[in-house]
Design a protein that fits this description.
About 9% of the residues have low confidence. Helices cover 72% and strands 0% of the residues. The protein has a domain of 111 residues. Helix 2 packs antiparallel against helix 3 and helix 10 packs antiparallel against helix 11. The longest helix is centred in the first third of the chain and has 19 residues. It has 14 helices and no strands.
Length: 283
């Protein structure tokens, strides 16, 4: 029984398609049909047969739109289907290099930034890759998300001052945007933990005007109540926390806050034992 390795099978498919192209004189349609079949295999979850077919397309048509799509799909298969991120990013990079303004280039660059951040955990390079999405592509409707990602990475890096700068760029450049809405929350949390509650209140006031029905309102109120607690205004803080009962998304944390303040009030408002600050939210 004759056995063929993967490369041999790809070559036979390519030769078969070339022969059909030469005999029938309709190369584009044959490549398109092959590409269609490859996409069908990918959608059905038959990753390895899809890889063979996309590689066959590349053998016949190594450049141009068909090649760009094949490289892009190969990147997606290795990323989502097989979990081989290093191989996936190489295909996405080929797409970007082949035609930086092509149909698939922006999507490929997004994948590159995501893989670098989440899989490779190279945060400095991830910032560069997300910045490329803002600087090099005319997709202004997606710039707020990329700016948010950049700010969030600085947060991950514990560079809170720069995270504030980046979040401020977002809220100032893209007001009334869903990403700016969450950015206000992140800003007030950081300011609170930097003991800058007066600045946090200013941002909170802006937030209430811009997003009066925000889903983040409860979390913003929690930050404001926390500021009162830090300032020793325990009764005001308690009442503000109390108003959140039934609406706050972290009821166990709210209960802990209320019980802690009750205990402090009973002891005459003495300062609680100092605990190292930790940012509660993670990007």
């Amino acid at each position: 029984m004759m056995c063929f390795n993967l490369r041999t099978r790809i070559t036979y498919i390519a030769i078969f398609c070339i022969v059909l192209t030469a005999s029938l004189g309709c190369g584009d349609s044959r490549v398109e049909n092959l590409l269609l079949r490859a996409n069908e295999e990918w959608v059905q979850g038959r990753n390895h047969s899809a890889i063979e077919l996309f590689n066959a397309v590349l053998e016949i048509s190594p450049s141009g739109p068909h090649a760009e799509e094949s490289l892009y799909r190969l990147g997606e298969i290795y990323y989502f289907g097989l979990g081989e991120t290093a191989k996936a990013i190489s295909y996405f990079q080929e797409v970007v290099n082949m035609r930086p303004r092509g149909e698939f280039a922006y999507g490929a660059q997004k994948y590159i930034a995501e893989i670098v951040e989440l899989s490779f955990r190279d945060l400095d390079q991830a910032i560069i890759e997300y910045q490329k999405l803002i600087n090099e592509y005319k997709k202004p409707e997606e710039h707020p998300e990329q700016q948010f990602r950049i700010a969030a990475i600085y947060f991950k890096k514990h560079n809170y001052e720069q995270a504030l700068v980046e979040f401020d760029i977002l809220v100032e450049s893209y007001p009334k945007n869903q990403w700016s809405e969450e950015a206000y929350l992140r800003i007030t949390e950081i300011l609170h933990n930097m003991e800058r509650c007066s600045d946090a209140r200013e941002k909170y006031s802006q937030f209430r005007v811009l997003y009066p029905k925000s889903t983040f309102s409860g979390e913003m109120e929690f930050v404001m109540a926390s500021c009162l607690e830090e300032e020793g205004k325990l009764k005001l803080a308690y009442n503000r926390f109390k108003k959140l009962e039934g609406d706050y998304k972290y009821p166990a944390l709210l209960k802990m806050k209320l019980e802690g303040i009750e205990g402090r009030i009973k002891k005459g408002g003495k300062s609680r034992r100092k605990i190292p600050r930790r940012y509660r939210r993670k990007s």
